[in-house]
Amino acid sequence: MNDFDALLVRVLDQARALKIPVSAQIRPHVTVNRRAVTRFGCCIRRGEAFEIELSQRLLEAAEGACLQTLAHEALHTCPGCRDHGQRWKAYAARMNAAYGYAIARTGTCQALGVPDVRPERSSAGRARPWCGRHAPPEPPGSRPPPSVRQWKKCG
User: Fold this and answer.
1) 14-53 pLDDT per residue, tens
2) Distance from C-alpha of 61 to C-alpha of 134, rounded to nearest angstrom
3) Collapsing DSSP states into helix, strand and coil, what is residue 126?
4) Least C-beta-crowded within 10 Å: which of 30, 66, 111, 155?
5) Are 155 and 134 in contact (CB under 8 A)?
6) Is 23 exposed, middle or buried (0-12, 13-18, 19+ CB in 10 A)?
7) pLDDT tens per residue across all 155 residues of the chain
């Protein structure tokens, strides 16, 4: 089982060694999010401080996957890096080059080596159950205006 707090200290030391201005106000305890299934990490700003959350799925993941995700979130604490803009991308590129990470805007289960447990999403082309009392969806571009359309999905 990974020790997220120890790994966070390591990532922050790596960033500071590269002169990347990660915040000194990062809470030293990483929160484990047991409900997160569509993201691996999150950086939350609370006043002037930051809190980093990681998905429970990373507890058993390879150490490199945890380090990479922590680095991704730690970069969001840099001035001007709340989003994935040019400054954030430049810092990510420096971390990637120096430490062999593959920090990107998003990560995949396959790339991080964790099982994909996300719920299945609805797709426009997927067959859906219909009760027979309501019409199935029309092909794209042939839908009547909402005032005329009264069909509902059943089942």
Assistant:
1) 999 999 999 999 999 999 988 877 789 999 999 999 999 9
2) 46
3) coil
4) 155
5) no
6) middle
7) 789 999 999 999 999 999 999 999 999 999 998 887 778 999 999 999 999 999 888 888 899 999 999 999 999 999 999 999 999 999 999 999 999 999 999 888 888 888 787 667 655 555 555 555 555 556 666 655 555 555 555 54
**DSSP conformation class of 98:** H
Concatenating the DSSP letter of every residue in 23-91 gives -S-B-SSPEEESS-SS-SEEEEEETTEEEEEEEGGGGGS-HHHHHHHHHHHHHTTSTT-SSS-HHHHHH
Q: Which tokens is 72 given?
A: 């991704």
- Per the structure block, which two tokens stand in for 48? 């002037």
What is the number of alpha carbons within 13 Å of residue 135 lying toward its C-beta? Answer: 9
